[in-house]
Amino acid sequence: MQASLPETFLWGGAVAAHQLEGGWDQGGKGPSVVDVLTGGAHGVLRRITDGVQPGEYYPNHQAIDFYHHYKEDVALLAEMGFKCFRTSIAWTRIFPRGDEAEPNEAGLKFYDDLFDELLKYGIEPVITLSHFEMPYHLAKTGEGWLKREVVDHFVRFAQVVIRRYQHKVRYWMTFNEINNQMNTDSDLFGWVCSGVRFSQQADARQAMYQAVHHQFVASAQVVRFAHELNPDLQVGCMCAFTPFYPYSCHPDDIMLAQQAMRDRYFFTDVMVRGAYPSYALRDWARRGFDIEMAEEDAAILAAGKVDYIGFSYYMSSTVQAGEAKSIAGSQDGSSPYSVANPHIRSSDWGWSIDPVGLRYALASLYERYQVPLFIVENGFGAVDKPAEDGRVHDDYRIDYLRAHIQEMIKAVTLDGVDLMGYTPWGCIDLVSFTTGEYKKRYGFIYVDRHDDGSGTGARSRKDSFHWYQQVIASNGQQL
Ligand code: BGP
């Protein structure tokens, strides 16, 4: 068993185009599903508006203006010693409406320049093709991925960018947190994952599986295309992995936790194994769901198995058999049976802090699938206040990350997990996805931008910046 992380380990950080780029209508970019999401607030989810409306506040339109500041920002990432940088390509920079025949050259050029800048410092780009960035034009009816033709639009987009960047980008992922849309109680997740408004569907759950089926088919086609184009390319899936623990040793709690885990495994089961699992097919039959599939779909899924599993880990959830509650609007990975875990405390946003759960997640996923894993999001959202010396002393963030990295190293060195890398979320402060706030910060780099519109946009190094620099330099030995 190896004693430490491999020398090739991809240390870095993660962001998504829409949460940091800004420039939402520049360089020919069209509006995406997040461009019509208003700002939310602590505990209040964001609203979807009917197109971009005057007088509404849309935090993603400006974000931290990475679109114009990427050179300065990449230099800071390089100073931390990043080996890789995970971001997404905004689909609407390349195909502003989503259904054009030809791509927008100005959008393609932006990512060429960004990738060149990263590669100049030896930073490997890790690219998500769709991180909640579907073109608004394809989603405005509220049906989005329910429409089969979206498969072709997405595959065309993916083929254009994979062909263009194949010598600059080796690691790809298809859909960010594809499983978030399992939460059909809220319109927010269906909207950003699939452009579907669940509240307008007769049976939200059936609609969700239909939209997801189309995404599975699209993802598999993209994997196959990439492999045929260039065997060096690796394409992964990306799921939010929040493990469920049983509240007690009561057999009903154990069984409930096992059943709840199927909502986690369903997506990886299909994308890693290339076929629908028997428990899902039974469940659909029992509920009378009729998911439309084309004749060739089974063969497409089987031929497009992903190379690795990318996943986000923020927290665990604990379930107890009993009365189900509604969980509308929850992004904390909970189930209707979730209860507080007395052994685990939570962040200001109610997300449980459970480093051991990361080792549990890694070991569980690896034992089930035996494919390489990549932790592509993990982190601590907190309110950062610069101290009198003007600096952010974020020891709470360092504590969170240190504890998670320790468990991650155990998973590799003790459990034998094949782990490609670790990219903490929001390595530079950006717009929070669920709340639309700047206030919920994750970064090693502070950005002077605030929810009331104030701030210079200036970047500065938090204490965690220097700490992470030393973690990377020592390959995880100095924590
Ligand atoms: C994940 C998303 C990210 C990100 C993160 C943190 O679900 O992939 O886009 O934002 O969660 O969530 P939040 O910003 O709501 O704290």
TrEMBL record:
Any coiled-coil regions, as ranges: none
- InterPro entries per UniProt: GH (IPR017853), GH_1_N_CS (IPR033132), Glyco_hydro_1 (IPR001360), Glyco_hydro_1_AS (IPR018120)
What are the protein's UniProt keywords? Glycosidase, Hydrolase
Query: What Pfam families does its record include?
Result: Glyco_hydro_1
Instruction: Name the source's superkingdom.
Output: Bacteria
- Which residues act catalytically here? 377 (nucleophile)
Q: Which SUPFAM superfamilies is this protein grouped with?
A: (Trans)glycosidases
Q: Does the keyword Hydrolase apply?
A: yes
Sorted alphabetically, which PANTHER family does this protein's record hold? 6-PHOSPHO-BETA-GLUCOSIDASE ASCB-RELATED (PTHR10353:SF122), GLYCOSYL HYDROLASE (PTHR10353)
The family classification in the record reads: Belongs to the glycosyl hydrolase 1 family.
NCBIfam families assigned = PRK09589.1, PRK15014.1
What is the protein name stated in its UniProt record?
Answer: 6-phospho-beta-glucosidase BglA
Q: Which organism is it from?
A: Pseudaeromonas paramecii
Q: Which gene encodes it?
A: bglA
